[in-house]
Amino acid sequence: MSAELGFLSLLLALGCAFLQSFAAFRSGKDGLQLSISASRAQVIAVLASFLFLVASFMASDFSVTNVVANSHSAKPMFYKIAASWGNHEGSMLLWALILAGYGAAFAQFQGKSTPDSRFAIGVLGLLSGGVLAFIVFASNPFWRQVPAALDGRGLNPLLQDPGLIIHPPLLYMGYVGFAVPFAMAVGALAKGKVDADWARRARPWMLVSWGFLTWGIALGSWWAYRELGWGGYWFWDPTENASLLPWLVGAALVHSTLVLERRGGFPGWTVLLAIITFALSLIGTFIVRSGLLTSVHAFAVDPARGLAILGYLVVVIGSAMALFAWRAKAFSADMKFTPASREAMILVNNLVMSSAAAAIFLGTLYPLIIDALGASPLSVGAPFFSSTAVPLFIIGMVAMGLAPLAMWRKGTLMQALGQSRFALGLALAGLALTAALKPGSIMGPLAVGSAIWVGAATTTFGIKRRRTKWTLDQWAMVLGHIGLSIAVIGMAATSLFSTEISKAVNPGDITQLGHVHARFDGITSVQGPNYAAERARISILDENGEVKHTLYPERRYYPASGMPTTEAAIQSNPLGDLHVTISALTEKQGQQTVIKGWAVRLFYRPLIGWIWFGAALTGLGSLIGGLGIGWRRRQIKPVIMQAGEA
Amino acid sequence: MRLVILLVAALILGAATAPEQPLDDPSLEARALDLFKELRCPTCIAQSIHDSNADIAGDLRIIVREQIAQGKTNAQIRDFLVARYGDVILLRPPVKQSTIALWLGPWIIFLVGGLIVFLTMRRHRANSD
Question: Is residue B108 classed as helix, strand or coil in its secondary structure?
Answer without folding.
Answer: helix
